[in-house]
Amino acid sequence: MNGTLTDVDGLLVGHAVRRERLTGCTVVVAREGAVAGVDVRGAAPGTRETDLLHPLSTVQQVHAVVLAGGSAFGLEAATGVVTWLESEGIGFPAGRYRVPIVPAAILFDLGVGDGRIRPDAACGREAAEAASPAAVAQGNVGAGAGATVGKLQGMARAMKGGLGSASIRLPDGVVIAALVAVNARGDVIDPSTGQVVAGVRTADGRHLADARVLLRQGLAAPGAPAEHTTLGIVATNVTLTKTEASLVARMAHDGFARAIAPVHTPADGDVIFALATGRRPGTADVGLIGALAADVTAQAILNAVRHAEALPSLPSVRSLTP
Description:
22% of the residues lie in helices and 27% in strands. Strand 12 (187-190) and strand 13 form a beta hairpin. The longest helix has 22 residues, at 286-307. It has 6 helices and 16 strands.
């Protein structure tokens, strides 16, 4: 166990980062396929191929999931993953061809550095080629490279977000894990204490203002539409149907609600994908899987900001805390 998403047998994770301005993409590869579901809660999502995950759709498995920065432009990263998977002979059989099934979702990070630099097909291919079963790198990596949090008073008082992962293994061998790119408008909260870990800062920039307090005082600035978004992938080694995977994704959003305040706002495009590799035989307790998916999702959110590194105008948890 390495404590990250790759604890789920059959899944590989790779990142690519565009250092010219700090943005990137993250790819979860399932070479042998994985049953998938999705639940979209934010009001400003940017997605690709999520309709394929509907239980009534024909395709039963996906071969990768892509999370990327760059707003809608970043969806191009999925094209690079598709071409790489095809070169590896991986995909849905369609006559003489194999068509890789690669759902994707993006977050808005164009306000960090030069927004003309975005994840593209080359970025997606690079991340797919780098995908491995090693412990998932966290912080300013992949889709979390340009992520920020705590934007209720604008970017001037925000903090650095990032990408985090967490996992749990039950005594019977069931594994549930999560990977989250945290780019929320709201603050990140530790559910065990109720305390703000990262988020909107006070006017002097030295302390945490607490978005919950600002909201009650009517001091939140209007949120710019589509400039935020938290993206997650939860996964398990048990066998699930597409309907069950979608239920797990729905329950995992409780982890967003526990660890981010406010969340699922009109300015967020929050999305969670759920993957089931079926490597562990037997009947799954979907309610248990979903409940624990919420737990590891909340932990992954905390790990994202705790691993994040500061940028010149964006302090991190480690740089702000003495």
